[in-house]
Description:
By secondary structure, the protein is an all-alpha fold. 78% of the residues lie in helices and 0% in strands. It has one domain (3-104). Helix 1 (3-23) runs parallel beside helix 3 (56-79). The chain crosses the membrane at residues 33-51, 58-79, 85-104.
Amino acid sequence: MHNAVYLGIAIVAEVVATSALKSSNGFTRLGPSILVVLGYGVAFFCLSFALRTIPTGIAYAIWSGAGIVLVSGVAWLLHGQRLDVPALVGIGLILAGVIVINTFSRSAAH
């Protein structure tokens, strides 16, 4: 499997885990708590494979940037989180940064 695919899986698993964290209610609800632990486990396992060829700083920038954007969307859909204009602009800038890294950075070449 290509290391970028591992990074994508790591991002999705982290988003699932982080989204379940709120529903775990401080790890007092079993189902969401198990999802948190499994999600983070899969995320770090797959991230470790991605780091074989993707530089750590680049992988982390993509992982955290995409994670912020996706978690914000999931929180809006599932938990009714509202984002004001400055938050949306900031998230847009994060997304733009991830796109710039993936499109133009020679450091991201893997």
